[in-house]
Amino acid sequence: MSNHNQADKTPTPRYKPYKGAAGGWGALISVTQAWLTSDNALKNIRTMLKTNQNGGFDCPGCAWGDSPESGMVKFCENGAKAVNWEATKRRVDAAFFAKHSVTALLEQSDYWLEYQGRLTEPMVYDAVSDRYQPISWDNAFKLIARHLTSLTTPDQAEFYTSGRASNEAAYLYQLFVRAYGTNNFPDCSNMCHEASGVALSQSVGVGKGTVTFDDFEHADAIFVWGQNPGTNHPRMLEPLREAVQRGAQVVCINPLKERGLERFQHPQHPIEMLTNGDRPTNTAYFRPALGGDMAMMRGMAKFLLQWEREAQAQQAPSVFDHDFLNEHTGGVLDYLASIDDTPWEQIVEQSGLPMGEIELAAKMYLKANNVIMCWAMGITQHRHSVATIQEIANLMLLRGNIGRPGAGLCPVRGHSNVQGDRTMGINERPPVFLLDALEKRFQFKVPRSNGHNVVEAIHAMLDGRAKVFIGLGGNFAQATPDSPRTAEALRNCALTVQISTKLNRSHLMHGKDALILPCLGRTDIDLQAEGPQAVTVEDSFSMVHASNGQLQPLSREMRSEPAIIAGIAAATLGNHPVDWNWLIADYRRIRDLIADTLPGFKDFNQRLEHPGGFYLGNSAAERRWNTASARANFKANLLPMDLVNERVRATGQVPDLILQSMRSHDQYNTTIYGLDDRYRGVRGQREVVFVNEADIIRLGFQPGQKADLIAIWDDGRERRVNGFTLLAFDIPAGQAAAYYPEVNPLVPLESVGAGSHTPTSKFVAIRLERSAQSNRIA
């Protein structure tokens, strides 16, 4: 069977607990397999060596920053998978769509759809044949312009952005959309780190992390909250294990025992590989209840306050940094009162940890002079995520751990430029300074009212208030919660437009009119009128650097994202407020506009010539607080009275389990590279649910049996996924975990974070039923 049809093979599902270290030979074998199945092996080996190198391209995977050290290999296992997945010779062209109807494609898996290859020409949906057919770029742009200009108000259109988009594409996109007349910018960040931006903006005045890569070398302790870097940010494992080796505390807080957070074998260290050695990546591992992280933090703060009072009574050195508190912060007395008002009984019950473990974590924090706290979606995708992240900031402020070397806040972003997109103005609630700058520079009336985030956009499409959806990258239909309702929302549109590199399910959940517009990827050479172009991205450490594609595109019909945006804008607005085609002839012109309107980008083009790019800066890292009080703010939030949503309680049902969604090791976001999850021992399957063995028995099942998962919510809708194999796993009692996006149908659209609107994908109340599908022991 050819590689092109490899996705048609049905692997034998297997489950065998994994006992090795993260990385190592398994990572090298996985990289080799991805390389060989790309159908472009010889070119791709050269291409991978250009990943994250000066003059090369930025990895299309995660947003972890690059080590300042030079080296031939600067990519991880999952970065190599991302490169090979994008840089394939397989094509999805007119002949492919002539062979496959949309109805037939709907029967295929997400893995199969993307495996078919790169989209190579613009396509329009034909309802009569139920197939996509070729369309010229000019006619595609005219179709979009006709729909946009016929709307009653610009607010009837939704403009989605994926974190893959470059700074140049994102800036053009927001400029076009605001010139068109709306702030409807549903964005992938709404579903991941929105809570981080909201919380940190209120606490320290900037919605980004305050650390740089160099800070990890000087930290005495690194706390990793709700994050699995072994799968989602593998390059982070190296600074973690180096910290352990030099004697720093690395404290991991995660309900699941993730292999990358335990031990790591570096695939680029020959001695480790030949001797099969490995190194620990933590010095302590805590496993709180789902949603119990804030209670654990409050307990740590309660111990610190106790020790501070004891130190004062004994006239011993202070636990708190009083100079920092007096000079830089506000609200500390209210926060300390809230600590006193929080009883230990509530802390212990909600955290799921005994008091002794909380005390141990507090001692580790106290012992360290310089502390970094990292977190990801295990923290951000809860109802009380904003309050939880502000509790992280509170802990750090007590001891002055913001704004000095080796210390600070580190939200670890997901997709490679999700932070840059927000910096460029992809924001449904834009800051006034941005709107003022755009209005002054481009001389048009900028819309001032807030637009729609992802959840609001879905509601608007369902209600008929939004009629056009344009997706700049991503896979909106699969990435979003309440999947059947999202599909209904997209199908309710008069027009859907997907700007994409590969086929995915969003192309099949289409509006009455629908377009697929094939764009260049990060690995492709971007040739415009003035020559090859570089784009830029911003990583989690606010470093901005250039990315230069290395491979010839598979088709002349593929266009860059900036070129596609410019084509839509020119067809819709003419040359208002800029000459769009002139801008994209040379992306330096776009960067000049960025420099004119966004802080931190002065002399953008000149600074970009520096190897490794440049640091945007961070006001909080400099102890300048862009808050109303001009101080860092303690936030005295109450612990939730009940982690379980009142709309779950209203049903009168007691949940069997609390479910979190997560990625497998063979995927990135909605992109499925394969059907294995090496570090969790799963092979050839994705419809599995990880459950404590005692819970499986308690609920009347046996490991390896199949069950249907049903969400508990009080709106009368049935949210169910069928035929999931129960795998006995080392997970705390009462919890369950399963893969995203397969369990997205279980997340109610209305279940969102307070203040963030982020779907609560890490806390879903479910019950189990025996599956009608035949049982099979995995």
What does the model show?
- The protein is built from 30 helices and 33 strands.
- By secondary structure, it is of the alpha/beta class.
- It has four domains: 84 residues, no CATH class; 200 residues, Rossmann fold (3-Layer(aba) Sandwich), CATH 3.40.50; 219 residues, 3-Layer(aba) Sandwich (Dimethylsulfoxide Reductase, domain 2), CATH 3.40.228; 125 residues, Barwin-like endoglucanases.
- The strands form ten sheets. A six-stranded mixed β-sheet has the order 6-5-18-17-16-7, sandwiched between helices. It has a six-stranded mixed barrel with strand order 25-32-29-31-30-33. Strands 12-9-8-14-15 form a five-stranded parallel β-sheet, with helices on both faces.
- Helix 13 runs antiparallel to helix 16.
- The two termini are 26 Å apart.
Distance between the termini: 26 Å
Instruction: Output mean pLDDT.
Output: 91
Structural class: alpha/beta
Query: Runs with pLDDT <50, length 5+?
Result: none
Number of DSSP E strands: 33
Count of helical stretches: 30
Give the overall form: globular
Output the CATH topology of the largest domain. Dimethylsulfoxide Reductase, domain 2
Strand order of the largest sheet: 6-5-18-17-16-7
Name of the CATH first level of the largest domain: Alpha Beta
Main sheet attributes: strand count, strand direction, barrel closure: 6 strands, mixed
Radius of gyration, whole Å: 25 Å
Strand content: 15-25%
CATH H-level superfamily of the largest domain: Dimethylsulfoxide Reductase, domain 2
Count of discrete structural domains: 4
Architecture of the largest domain, CATH level 2?
3-Layer(aba) Sandwich
| Percentage of residues assigned to helices | 25-40%
